[in-house]
Specification:
Blueprint: H1 2-20, H2 25-59, H3 64-89, H4 93-127
Helix pairs in contact: 1-2, 2-3, 3-4
Length: about 130
């Protein structure tokens, strides 16, 4: 997987350098296409592992909403960071900052669900 991403990155850099000599807009398009390709490659790889983990959760009767909420939080963090860095690379740093802030707020919203689940479990233990 890492080899594919590195290979695509090298091709992207070479194309970006070569094509930006003719038209600087091509660099933007190539960067965006690279970002989309990397996200799709990673999500397709992660999907198989997530399915295995969900099978384990079901096998041991663990509630999957804990896991899905945590996955959403981690996914939002990575996606927002990735998009923010892409915006900075394309000289749209202010847009990237706003993506970071939006991601942090969404993570806060999902964290409230985790806190509620955690408090429910504590109250179950305390109240017996």
């Amino acid at each position: 997987m890492l080899g594919k991403i590195i290979f695509i990155a090298v091709i992207t850099v070479i194309l970006g350098i070569t094509l930006s000599k003719f038209n600087s807009e091509f660099k933007v398009y190539i960067t965006v296409i690279f970002g989309i390709l990397v996200i799709f490659l990673l999500f397709s790889e992660i999907r198989t592992y997530l399915e295995e983990i969900i099978i384990l959760f079901n096998r041991y009767s663990i509630r999957t909403e804990y896991f899905s909420t945590i996955l959403k939080i981690v996914g939002i963090a990575y996606i927002c960071d990735f998009i923010s860095l892409m915006c900075k690379d394309l000289n749209y740093e202010s847009v990237g900052k706003k993506v970071e802030i939006a991601g942090k707020l969404i993570i806060l919203i999902y964290s409230i669900d985790i806190i509620k689940i955690f408090l429910d479990q504590i109250l179950l233990l305390v109240n017996g």
